[in-house]
Write a structure and sequence with these properties.
The complex is a heterotrimer. Chain B is α/β, with parallel strands linked by helices. Chain B is 48% helix and 10% strand. Chain B has a six-stranded parallel sheet, sandwiched between helices. Chain C is 37% helix and 18% strand. Chain C has two domains: 2-183, 3-Layer(aba) Sandwich (Rossmann fold); 196-322, Rossmann fold (3-Layer(aba) Sandwich), CATH 3.40.50.920. Classes of the chains: A alpha+beta, B alpha/beta, C alpha/beta. Chain A binds chain C through residues 128-135, 173-178, 193-195, 200-202, and chain C through 203, 226-229, 254, 281-286, 320, 323-327.
Chain lengths: 487, 389, 327
C-alpha cells in the first residue's frame, strides 16, 4: 500500500513550507516515523516524517522548493508497486490535500476555546440542515464541523483550513470570492464547506458574521483543528489565526524607486513573512498606549552578586529576575494577563510569559509556562535553553505559542528605552532598557544607583491607563525589593 | 381552389398532352433506345422535337420586321450572357471573384428561350449556375457583376455571390446552392399561385443530376397531385459535375421521369432557341390556363468546366466530344439562321457585339468602384423584427 | 378563465390566426381529413377548407420546401411535422432555405412561416421517435425556436409565431397535449424571446423549457417542502434566449440547474451555462449543473427508458448538489 508524502502543516500558522533538505534518497527504505526531510516553516525548521513503511520511490519536489500544505511531495511504496496512478494525481492537489489535513497539527483546544467553539457553533443534531436555515445561519459550517471535530481531525472537509489546489490557490466559488473581497474577509482563513473544501457563500457569511470579533472565528478554527497535542492552556492557534477583518490600508511599495548605491533584494523567508503579517496586524487595529517608568535595580544587581557567590548553580541574569518579577506581578494583576478576543476578553489564570528572542532571521517569542510559579533558577535555565534553540531554529511549535504576556529586552544592546509591539491577542508587553549607573538624589546627597527604564505597551481595549500604571507599580516594587518575590 | 386528388383529372391532364407534339411521341421515339443508350439517337429525338416546335406560334411573328426584332432580341440576350461570362472567367482568374463560380456558357438558349416568353409577374427559380437566367430575366450586368465581386451594389449586397443571385422585383427567386433543394420551393411557389387563384407560372431550372435527388420526386409528385403551375426545366448538360448522365441515372431519357407522376413531359434540343421557345410556350400555356405542371428535358451542353476549378474538358469527357458540341453553339446557330434570313449583317453583328462588350466592361468598372459591404452589414438581415400586425 | 388542454390551446391559436389572416394555411401529414395525428388541427378543415388545411403525402422534405416557396411569395405557411423526429428529412429546407433566405437575399425575402409539431419522447416509442431537437434548431441563425410548456404559453406563443415574419420552429410536447391550464378567454399574444418566471425562490434557479417546465415545477414544489425555494425560469423561447431573465435569476440565487429534455453535448443547457458563466461569474456559488437525457438513444423497455429521461428526482438531486447538500 503506497503512502503519500505530503507537505504537512508543521506549525499552526503554516500555509506552505520550503523543503530545505531531503534526508532520504529515492530508493531508500523507510519506516513509519523515519525523518524524510527538513522543512522550513514560517517559524522553524521542522522534520517531516514518513507516515508509512516502504521505499521512498519518488521525491516530487526538489530542495529549496516551496509547496503548499497538502501538496504531494513524495511517494513511499513497495519496491515494485505501481505508483503511476498516484503520480498522475500529483499536482492535482485535491485528493492529496484531503489527506494532508490529517497531519495538520493544531494545538490543543483548551477549555476556553471549547467555549468559543460552542458559542460559534450551536451543537446541532440537524445533520441535514435545512438549506434555508443553512443559508440564513452563519453556523452552518460549524454545524458540520461539530461532530467530527470531537472524534478526530481527519474527516469533515469543513475542518480543513481553506482548501488549496496544487498552486496554493484557495478554492472558492466566484460568489464567495466577490463577497470576501467586498467584506474584507481573507479567503485563506475561511474554512470551505463545499466539495473539495471549496469556500462557498455560507462560509463567507459565517466568517463575516464574526468579522467584528476576529479571535472568535479563530477560536472556531482552533476548536476544529486537531486535538492530538494536548498542551493545556495553549490558545496559540487561536492567536495565530486571529486576523483583523479589515485589512490595513496597503502601503505603497516602491518598486520603481531609484536604487542609490549597493542594494540587495532578499526574498522573504517564511519567518519574515509571518513577522510582517503579525506585527502589522498588531499596530493597525490595536489602540496602544505606553507607560514608562524607571526602576532602581541596585538591589537586583547586588542580589545577583550574592547569588553568584553561592555557586554557579545560582547564577541568574537581570533578565531572569525581570521575567520572574513580571510573572509574579501578572499573577497579582490578572487584568493585564489577558487575551483580546474581539467580542470578549479572556483573563488567564496561569501566566505563560513570552520572551522575545532575536535570531539571525528575526524575532521569535518562546514561552516560559507558569513562570510565576517557577523559581529563578528554572526560569533562567529555561530561558537560556529556549533562546539557544530559538537561534538554531529548533523550537517546537508548542514552545513558541500560547504566551499570555511578553517581555522584550534590548538592554544588552545599550538601548535605554524603547517601545515594543504587542503580540496579539496578548494585551501588553514590556520593553526593558539597559541598566545604567546614574546619580540619584537620596537622603540629601547624590548617590550612584543602577537604574533601568521599562516601557509597557498596553492594549487600551483591555488595559486602562491606571490599570497599567498599577501593574507597573507592582513590578517596580518587586524589582526594587526582590525579596518580595519569595512570598 | 382545392388540390384535387381525383384520378380522373390526372388522366385528363395526361390525355391533353398526348395530342400535342410533346411527351408521348418523344416517349415512343426514345423508348427504342432504352436498351442501348445512344446519345445520337437521343439527339435526333431532340432535334426532331425542336424542328416541330420551331414552327410554333411563338417563333412565327406575323411580319419580317417583327421576326427580325424578335430574333435580334434573342441573339442579344444570349450574346450578353456569353460575353458577360467570358469576362467573369477572366475576373475570376485575376482574383476579383471568389468562391464557387459556375459558368453557363453553351446553355444560353435555354434561359433565353424560356424567359423570353414569361410575363413580368411570373417567377423563376434556379440553381447555383444562375448568371444566365438572371441576365435573361433583366437583372442588370452591373448588379450581377457587383454581386460576383462581393460589393454593396450587387443584387444581394454582397451577401450571396455567384450562387445566390436574387431579385424580388423581377420574380427571380434565386440562386440555390443545394442540388435539388429548390425544386420543392418551386412547388411551393406554384402552390401559392394556385392558393391565390393567380395565373402566373414558375419556371424551375435544374441540372439533370438533380433528378436523382429525393427532393425532385417529392416536388414533382406534389405538383402533379395538386396541379401546380410549375415548369420543371431540366437542363441536361450531360454531366453532374464529372459524372455523365449514363453513370448516374438508371434511365437516360430524363424526361421519362415525368411518367411516374403522369406529368406532361417533353425532350427538347437546348441549342436551338426556337425549339426551346416552342416547348416553353406550350408548357407555359398549360400552366397558366390549366394549372398543370410540365417536365421538360432540355438537352444542352456546357462548354466550360463544372465550375471555375474544373478544367474545360477534364477527365470525364473528351476534347472530341467538346468540339462536336461546340459546333452546335446556340449563338452561332441563331446567328447563321438570321444571316440566312437576311436579318443580320456583319456590321449589325459587330455593332451588337461591341455594344455588349462595352456594357460588360461597364459592369466590371461599376463593380470595381462599388464599395465592399460595411462590417455592420454582417449582422443585418439575420432576422426581421416585423410581424404581420 | 377557462381551463383547457394544451392541445385545445394550440387548436384555438391556429383557428384564430387562420381566421385573422387568409394568407395563413396549415399543411402537413394527416392535418385535414384525419383531423390531425394528435388532433391539434381538429375541425380546421371543415372551417377553412382544403386549400388552407392541406393533407400532404409523407414527404417531409417536399412539403417543408412547399412552405418555403409559398412564404417566398407572400403566404404564411404553418408546416406541421407529425413529429419533429420526422423533420430530419426536411432539415435542408428548414436550415438551408428558411433560415438563410432573408440573409442571402439581403433582406428581400422574409420567411413568415412556422414549422411545428410534437418534439421529444413520449412513452416507450424507442430510439427513432423520442428525440428533442431544439438544440439542433437553436444552433441556426435565422430561426426562432419556441418550446412552450403550458397551455397558456402554447396558445400565446403560437399566435406570436404565426404573426412573426421570421421562420419559427415551434416544438410542442406530445406528453403535454392532454395537460390542462388556464387560458384567458380574451385574445392575447406572448412575445417571442421572453422567458417567464414560473415560480419564485431565492435558493436556486431552475432554468428550463418545454416539457421540462412541469418537471421543474414539480421538483420545486417538493424541494419547497424541505425549505428549498427555487426560481423556475421557463425560457419559452430558446432562440432568441432571454439572457436577461437568466442573469437576473442567477444573480439572485447564485446557483443554477438547467433542465432539458435533450442530450447533454451541445444542448440548450450548454448555452444557458455559457450565458451564466459570462454574465454571472462573480455571482456563482456553485458550478451550474444540468439535468438532461442520458447520453444514449432512447430505449424501449420501461425501466431503462425511465432511467434515460430527465425527471423530478434527478432535478431535485441536482438542486441539492448546487446547494452543497447531499454531496
Amino acid at each position: 500500500m503506497a503512502t503519500k508524502v505530503m507537505m504537512e502543516a508543521l506549525s499552526p500558522t503554516m500555509e506552505e513550507g520550503r523543503l530545505a533538505k531531503w534526508l532520504k534518497n529515492e530508493g531508500d527504505t523507510v519506516a513509519n516515523g523515519d525523518v524524510l526531510a527538513e522543512v522550513e516553516t514560517d517559524k522553524a525548521i521542522m522534520e517531516l516524517v514518513a507516515r508509512g513503511d516502504g521505499v521512498l520511490r519518488k521525491r516530487l519536489i526538489g530542495e529549496d522548493t516551496t509547496a503548499p500544505v497538502g501538496d504531494l511531495i513524495g511517494i513511499i511504496a513497495g519496491a515494485d508497486e505501481d505508483i503511476s496512478a498516484m503520480l498522475a494525481g500529483a499536482g492535482g492537489g485535491d485528493a492529496g490535500a484531503s489527506e494532508a489535513k490529517s497531519n495538520a497539527k493544531g494545538e490543543a483546544k483548551d477549555a476556553a476555546s471549547d467555549d468559543a467553539a460552542s458559542a460559534a457553533a450551536k451543537p446541532s443534531s440537524e445533520g441535514a440542515a435545512k438549506p434555508s436555515e443553512a443559508e440564513a445561519s452563519s453556523e452552518a459550517p460549524a454545524n458540520k464541523a461539530d461532530a467530527p471535530a470531537a472524534a478526530s481531525a481527519t474527516s469533515a472537509p469543513s475542518e480543513k483550513p481553506a482548501q488549496s489546489d496544487a498552486d496554493g490557490r484557495v478554492l472558492a466559488s466566484p460568489l464567495a470570492r466577490r463577497m470576501a473581497s467586498e467584506q474584507g474577509v481573507s479567503l485563506s482563513n475561511v474554512q470551505g464547506s463545499g466539495p473539495g473544501g471549496r469556500v462557498v457563500r455560507r462560509d463567507i457569511e459565517a466568517a463575516a458574521s464574526q468579522a467584528a470579533s476576529a479571535p472568535a472565528s479563530s477560536a472556531k478554527a482552533a476548536a476544529s483543528s486537531s486535538s492530538t497535542s494536548a498542551n493545556a492552556g495553549a490558545s496559540a492557534p487561536a492567536a495565530a489565526q486571529a486576523k483583523p477583518q479589515g485589512k490595513p490600508p496597503a502601503i505603497p511599495l516602491a518598486p520603481s524607486m531609484q536604487i542609490d548605491g549597493d542594494a540587495r533584494d532578499v526574498p522573504l523567508t517564511q519567518m519574515r513573512k509571518t513577522i510582517a503579517r503579525r506585527l502589522s496586524e498588531s499596530i493597525g487595529p490595536v489602540p496602544t498606549f505606553y507607560l514608562t517608568a524607571e526602576f532602581d535595580t541596585t538591589t537586583v544587581a547586588s542580589l545577583r552578586t550574592q547569588m553568584a557567590s553561592a555557586g554557579d548553580a545560582f547564577k541568574v541574569s537581570v533578565n531572569d529576575i525581570i521575567m520572574k518579577a513580571t510573572a509574579v506581578a501578572l499573577a497579582k494583576h490578572p487584568e493585564c494577563n489577558a487575551h483580546w478576543l474581539g467580542d470578549s476578553i479572556r483573563y488567564h489564570a496561569r501566566v505563560h510569559l513570552g520572551m522575545a528572542v532575536a535570531t539571525d532571521d528575526g524575532l521569535i517569542v518562546p514561552v516560559i509556562r507558569d513562570a510565576d510559579t517557577k523559581g529563578l533558577g528554572q526560569i533562567g535555565r529555561e530561558a537560556r535553553e529556549l533562546a539557544g534553540r530559538a537561534r538554531e531554529r529548533k523550537l517546537k511549535p508548542e514552545e513558541y505559542t500560547g504566551s499570555t504576556f511578553s517581555v522584550s529586552n534590548l538592554g544588552m544592546f545599550g538601548i535605554d528605552q524603547f517601545t515594543a509591539i504587542i503580540n496579539p491577542p496578548e494585551v501588553g508587553i514590556l520593553a526593558i532598557g539597559s541598566s545604567e549607573t546614574k546619580p540619584v538624589w537620596e537622603d540629601g546627597a547624590f548617590v550612584p544607583k543602577q537604574r533601568m527604564r521599562v516601557t509597557m505597551s498596553c492594549d487600551h481595549r483591555v488595559i486602562d491607563g491606571a490599570v497599567g500604571a498599577r501593574f507597573l507599580q507592582t513590578l517596580k516594587h518587586l524589582i526594587e525589593n526582590p525579596f518580595l518575590m519569595l512570598y | 381552389m382545392t388540390p384535387s386528388k381525383s384520378p380522373a383529372s390526372r388522366t385528363a391532364a395526361g390525355g391533353k398532352t398526348s395530342g400535342k407534339a410533346g411527351a408521348k411521341s418523344a416517349d415512343k421515339t426514345v423508348a427504342k433506345t432504352d436498351a442501348k443508350p445512344d446519345p445520337k439517337v437521343s439527339e435526333k429525338a431532340a432535334a426532331k422535337s425542336g424542328t416541330k416546335s420551331a414552327a410554333s406560334k411563338a417563333n412565327s411573328p406575323s411580319s419580317t420586321e417583327n421576326r427580325k426584332a424578335l430574333h435580334t432580341s434573342l441573339l442579344h440576350t444570349m450574346l450578353l450572357q456569353r460575353r458577360f461570362e467570358e469576362r467573369t472567367a477572366e475576373m475570376y482568374a485575376i482574383g476579383k471573384i471568389g468562391g464557387f463560380c459556375h459558368l453557363y456558357i453553351g446553355q444560353e438558349a435555354v434561359s433565353t428561350g424560356f424567359i423570353s416568353l414569361l410575363r413580368d409577374d411570373d417567377y423563376i427559380i434556379t440553381t447555383y449556375r444562375d448568371h444566365g437566367q438572371a441576365l435573361a430575366r433583366g437583372m442588370t450586368p452591373r448588379a450581377v457583376m457587383a454581386e460576383l465581386f462581393g460589393r454593396v451594389d450587387g443584387c444581394v449586397g454582397g451577401k450571396g455571390g455567384s450562387m445566390h443571385l436574387f431579385d424580388k422585383s423581377l420574380g427571380f427567386l434565386g440562386g440555390h446552392g443545394i442540388v435539388g433543394g429548390h425544386i420543392p420551393i418551386a412547388a411551393g411557389v406554384g402552390f401559392a399561385i394556385k392558393y391565390r387563384g393567380g395565373d402566373q407560372v414558375i419556371v424551375c431550372f435544374m441540372g439533370e443530376a438533380a433528378v436523382n435527388n429525393g427532393a425532385f420526386h417529392e416536388a414533382l409528385n406534389m405538383a402533379a397531385l395538386w396541379k401546380l403551375p410549375c415548369l420543371f426545366v431540366i437542363e441536361n448538360n450531360r454531366y453532374g459535375m464529372g459524372t455523365a448522365v449514363e453513370r448516374a441515372s438508371a434511365i437516360n431519357d430524363i424526361y421519362k421521369r415525368g411518367a411516374s407522376y403522369d406529368m406532361p413531359r417533353d425532350v427538347v434540343d437546348g441549342q436551338d432557341v426556337f425549339a426551346v421557345r416552342a416547348a416553353a410556350e406550350e408548357a407555359i400555356a398549360r400552366a397558366r390556363t390549366e394549372s398543370m405542371p410540365t417536365l421538360l428535358e432540355i438537352r444542352t451542353y456546357r462548354f466550360m468546366g463544372h465550375s471555375m476549378s474544373d478544367a474545360v474538358s477534364g477527365t470525364y469527357r473528351t476534347k472530341e466530344e467538346l468540339e462536336k458540341y461546340l459546333k452546335r453553339d446556340p449563338i452561332l446557330l441563331l446567328r447563321s439562321q438570321m444571316e440566312e434570313n437576311g436579318d443580320l449583317s456583319e456590321a449589325e453583328w459587330t455593332a451588337m457585339d461591341e455594344e455588349i462588350k462595352a456594357v460588360v466592361q461597364d459592369s466590371i468598372d461599376f463593380a470595381e468602384n462599388s464599395p465592399e459591404p460595411a462590417l455592420e452589414t454582417l449582422y443585418e438581415h439575420v432576422l426581421v423584427d416585423t410581424t404581420s400586425d | 378563465m377557462a381551463v383547457i388542454t394544451y392541445r385545445e390551446a394550440l387548436n384555438q391559436a391556429l383557428r384564430e390566426e387562420m381566421a385573422r389572416d387568409d394568407r395563413v394555411f396549415l399543411m402537413g401529414e394527416e392535418v385535414a381529413v384525419y383531423q390531425g395525428a394528435y388532433k391539434v388541427s381538429k375541425g380546421l378543415l371543415q372551417e377553412f377548407g382544403e386549400m388552407r388545411v392541406v393533407d400532404t403525402p409523407i414527404t417531409e422534405l417536399g412539403f417543408a420546401g412547399v412552405g418555403v416557396g409559398a412564404a417566398m411569395v407572400g403566404l404564411r405557411p404553418i408546416i406541421e411535422f407529425m413529429t419533429w423526429n420526422f423533420s430530419l428529412l426536411a432539415l435542408d429546407q428548414v436550415v438551408n432555405a428558411a433560415a438563410k433566405m432573408l440573409y442571402m437575399t439581403n433582406g428581400q425575402f422574409p420567411m413568415p412561416m412556422v414549422f411545428r409539431g410534437p418534439n421529444g419522447s413520449a412513452l416507450q416509442l424507442a430510439a427513432q421517435h423520442s428525440q428533442a431537437w431544439e438544440s439542433w434548431l437553436a444552433h441556426i441563425p435565422g430561426l426562432k425556436v419556441v418550446v412552450p410548456g403550458t397551455p397558456y404559453d402554447a396558445k400565446g406563443l403560437l399566435k406570436a409565431a404565426i404573426r412573426d415574419d421570421n421562420p419559427v420552429c415551434f416544438l410542442e410536447g406530445e406528453m403535454l397535449y392532454n395537460t390542462k391550464g388556464e387560458v384567458p378567454d380574451e385574445e392575447y399574444v406572448i412575445p417571442l424571446g421572453k422567458a417567464d418566471l414560473k415560480r419564485e425562490g431565492d435558493h436556486c434557479s431552475l432554468i428550463t423549457h418545454g416539457k421540462m417546465v412541469l418537471v421543474a415545477l414539480q421538483a420545486a414544489e417538493q424541494l419547497a417542502k424541505e425549505g428549498i425555494q427555487c426560481d423556475v425560469v421557463d425560457l419559452r423561447t430558446v432562440r432568441p434566449m432571454d439572457v436577461d431573465a437568466i442573469v437576473a435569476s442567477v444573480k439572485k440565487t447564485n446557483r443554477a440547474v438547467v433542465v432539458e429534455e435533450g442530450w447533454e453535448i451541445c444542448g440548450v443547457g450548454a448555452q444557458v451555462v455559457d450565458y451564466v458563466q459570462r454574465n454571472c461569474f462573480d455571482y456563482l456559488d456553485a458550478p451550474v449543473l444540468r439535468v438532461h437525457q442520458a447520453d444514449t438513444p432512447m430505449p424501449y423497455a420501461k425501466a431503462i427508458e425511465k432511467a434515460a429521461k430527465p425527471d423530478v428526482p434527478k432535478t431535485i438531486a441536482a438542486v441539492k448538489k448546487v446547494l452543497y447538500i447531499d454531496d
